[in-house]
Amino acid sequence: MMARMRVSLLMLFGLFGVFVTAWGSRAPSVREALGLTVGQLGQLIVVGAVGSLISVMMSGMMVPRLGSRRSFALGAAGSFVGITVVGLSLFLRQPAVFAVGVLINGLANPYTNVTSNLEGARIEKMMGRPLLPQLHAAFPIGAALGSALGALSARLEVHPGWYIIGLAFVITALRAVLIRPATALGTPAGSHNPANTASAGAENVSRETLSPKRKSAWTEPRTLLLGVLLMAATMSEGSAGNWLNLAVVDSFATPEEFGALAYATFVISMLSVRLLGAKLLQKHGRLKVLYCSGTTALVGLLLFTTAPVLPLAWAGIVFWGAGAAMAWPTVMSAAADEGDRAPQRVSVASSFSSVSMLAVPPVLGMLGDAWGIRNALMLITIAMVASLLATRAARPLPAGRSLPAAGALPVGGAMDEVATDSRAQHQAVSDLSALQHPVSDLPNPQQAGSELPEPQSVTENPALAHAGKATANAIMAPDPELITAA
Prior knowledge:
With 486 residues, this protein is an all-alpha fold. It has two domains: 2-186 and 219-400, MFS general substrate transporter like domains (Growth Hormone, Chain: A, Up-down Bundle); 413-435 and 459-486, no CATH class. It has helices at residues 2-20, 27-34, 38-66, 68-92, 95-127, 132-155, 160-182, 207-210, 221-252, 256-275, 277-306, 310-324, 327-335, 342-371, 373-376, 380-389, 414-435, 462-476, 480-485.
């Protein structure tokens, strides 16, 4: 069942990628059908970002109440309606109808996005190894497929409205088949602890988990910095989805299908890195992966925006996509480190992503009208530098701070980064275990000459005293991350 759940969730990630490119892969035709400039199209995209921001701020509360299955279904139904309205707007040539469609789609998307990441994080902790990079690898596969289909429909001169509406029907039908197996172990409706549903049989729950006085995730410095990382990642990845097509077509005077193929190159580059993401995280840990990814994306974007010829700009697209690959899955995994707080933290961090989608498209659109869209994309480099400065917030929580499923190991390269924090506890427990005598090992008092050993006090046994002291020190040691946050 676990394998079937993983495959279904993987396919849902891929279908989400196809849906994201539904109209973006035909952006030049959409702009022409609606009679808009680049700046005006950017302003309409903002409407969808407003819906996404409103929805994502509610999803941390609504997803646990609805449960995983209903949340997925709500997201799928809303996206179908929104994308269908977008397609109809191109026949009607009404920008206002287009705005309604992207608004509905924006309201629906977080229920798919947040739920997918929470379910992926749950399985990740149950397996004891990184899984989100592989799941997120399905997104660029879907986006590449969507871009290729868009390029093919443009080549065949299919009306963008028919293409978008047809895609909405097909994707929604596939989602309807996959939702049930993807949520076989999902969060039941009304649950307020979705990330720990897998360990529902465990009886040991910390007092912190049961305490009604929990601080809001909006007051946690670490969660806010994770939001900054997601904001930069969204600016990088999202701007490529919205503007890379137009940037190639307008800057290098190429046919529309070349623009779609340029974005397909971007997502294929992302895919290549995400397929290796689990191994990279296990070998190098989150921080090294994020530092390397951010630097590579920055170099690639600078190369794309300054290249004098298309082949050199295309090389920049490859580096840009490779660098953008690991930010989203790694930061989402970091936000879900502590199971019972995962929905709230993922929701807060995702809100920064929605703010980015709200603010960046109109700014880039206006700058694109004045400078050209390729030059306007240089604005993203500022966010990339800020994300490099905030990267340390993604380090795994110290041992004892998270509440993973029973038997789970630290995830996302956390083994090496948490080892220092937990070594004292593990050594102390080992010392105590070595000094205890299981009942089966005690001598039988009925046997001739056998006697039960006399109990020893802590003061009489130096080894036991040392182990007890080590355990006390390990438990009472202050958490350095909490001190830093305070």
